[in-house]
Amino acid sequence: ETTATENLQECEERIEKILTKRGVEKENISGFAQRIRELGSLPNSELEKVKNMSIKKLMKSLGKVNEEVKKYSHVNKKALDQFVNFSDQREALLKRKAELDDGQDQIKKLIKHLDRQKDEAIMRTFRGVAKNFREVFKELVPHGRGELVMVTASDNPQTSSGSSEDPDIREQVDQFVGVSPRVSFTGKGDVFRMRQLSGGQRALVALTLIFAIQRCDPAPFYLFDEIDQALDANHRRMVAALIKRQAVSKEAPTQFITTTFRPELVAVANKTYGIQFQNKVSSMKELNKPDAMEFINTIAAEEGGAQQSEKKRKAASAPSLVSKRVVNDR
């Protein structure tokens, strides 16, 4: 009985060891299965190759694989973690790039919109000034004609007849470098540029541009200093008449303060003031129309006498000279 009991206990211990070993092997099988799943799905063709292989052949094949794996024992084992980290960074950078690209597109659209508004404003203002230039020049020179053109960097003028809706003109706005008057005082033949005109003609064209701009963007008052000095009598009358019309215009009434030595501006002035400079002292007094005209005529007589003789011109430059000027207030 004692021997049978010992044999039974021994068998139980052996069974317990076997069961324990069996449990360990099951855990190993589960671990290997998990590792196989982590490697990815095994192609059916490869599965068929090893499905019917014996354990001995499988172990031999495993040994060969392990030998091959040893060649890569120095591979960076953190490569996978680094790859995942860099992949996340790449995704974040790509997302940021997409946001920046979208922002850039929005900025480009805004710049394009503002450029279009700027170009349209430039062309709209230019057309308005060019239209007024033609009208004002016609008022000052009834038998003449004038136009205002834009000049590009290549000195290729674009006439004022263009439309702001023309995409070609909008593209050329950035090439514009200025404006240039083209005028003819006879209305016949070729038109002339500023450098081809006389001093009086240049002064008249400059006044035309000032009045053209004034009609587009009126100012409350203008101060003109001897603008009629280089003009002949006929053009002085035309300028005086234009100033009078502008001063009482219903659309944009404007005050003009001018200085002159000529009678034409005095004739249309509402108020006149005479200024004298004698012995280094200036004095000013208000004059009525007849006195102002006499004041001007006196100056004209003095100038006429000074032109007749070199001796009189030298005498006129002596310290006792009286300088006279009339200020007109429209």
UniProtKB/TrEMBL annotation:
It comes from the Eukaryota. InterPro entries: P-loop_NTPase, RecF/RecN/SMC_N. Residues 45-282 form the RecF/RecN/SMC N-terminal domain. This is RecF/RecN/SMC N-terminal domain-containing protein. SUPFAM superfamilies: P-loop containing nucleoside triphosphate hydrolases (SSF52540). Gene3D superfamilies: P-loop containing nucleotide triphosphate hydrolases (3.40.50.300). Pfam families: SMC_N. Residues 303-330 are annotated as: Disordered.
